[in-house]
């Protein structure tokens, strides 16, 4: 992904999140789509949802473990 494409995507996402009529369901949908998009780019532009979700779960597990290590 080029920097230009990245900036366009992020600008569009921010415009959607700044909408006055944005409700919780729309916000969750936008963040879910953003997560899918970002994690699909991690592994060579994969389109396999199970691999994308596995990557998300692994990332969240690593973040949780890092938080626990900081506390303990």
Structural topology:
Layout: H1 3-17, H2 24-42, H3 49-71
Describe the structure.
The chain has helices at residues 3-17, 24-42, 49-71. It starts with a helix and ends with a helix. It is an all-alpha fold and 72 residues long. It contains 3 helices and no strands.
Largest sheet: none
SSE string: HHH
Helix content: over 70%
Rg computed from alpha carbons, rounded to a whole number of angstroms: 15 Å
Catalogue the unreliable spans.
none
Q: Tell me the overall shape.
A: globular
Look at the structure and give the mean pLDDT. Answer: 84
**Count of helical regions:** 3
C-alpha termini separation:
38 Å
Count of DSSP E strands?
0
For the structure shown, list the relevant keywords.
mainly alpha; globular; 72 residues; 3 helices
Brief rundown of the structure:
This protein is mainly α.
